[in-house]
Design goal:
Radius of gyration: 14 Å
Low-confidence stretches: 1-5
Strand content: 35-45%
Order of helices and strands: EHEEEEH
Mean pLDDT: 88
Distance between the termini: 21 Å
Number of strands: 5
Number of domains: 1
Number of helices: 2
Largest sheet: 5 strands, antiparallel
Shape: globular
Length: 108
């Protein structure tokens, strides 16, 4: 995802044992969105100094007025292992759909 502005409106972190940079949040969003779209159970995350597995929890979570499909990531960083539980917001799902439509239009 070339644009990273607004990433924090695309996911909502429920729990994290690691500090999340905007780049890591964007990577988590991309993997989770792909899992949600495909229905697959797990996906891999590879970033410059972070790698791990993202699991589609296949249930929705709500945090106040924010809700969406839930995911959990087990990550390895230079500082050690960590876990992140998050949801992709409805805004994040819509953002992904808009990008897919734009990409399809540009290919045609």
């Amino acid at each position: 995802m070339a644009e990273t502005t607004g990433t924090w409106s695309l996911i909502s972190v429920l729990f994290s044992t690691l500090p999340l940079s905007q780049a890591l949040a964007t990577s988590l969003y991309e993997v989770a969105r792909g899992l949600h779209r495909s229905g697959e159970g797990t996906g891999e995350l590879y970033q410059e100094e972070v790698e791990g597995k993202v699991v589609n929890l296949r249930r929705s979570f709500a945090l106040g007025a924010i809700s969406g499909p839930g995911f959990e990531a087990d990550l390895e960083t230079p500082g050690g292992k960590g876990k992140v539980r998050f949801l992709v917001t409805r805004e994040g799902l819509e953002h992904g759909k808009r990008r897919e439509r734009l990409d399809a239009a540009l290919r045609n």
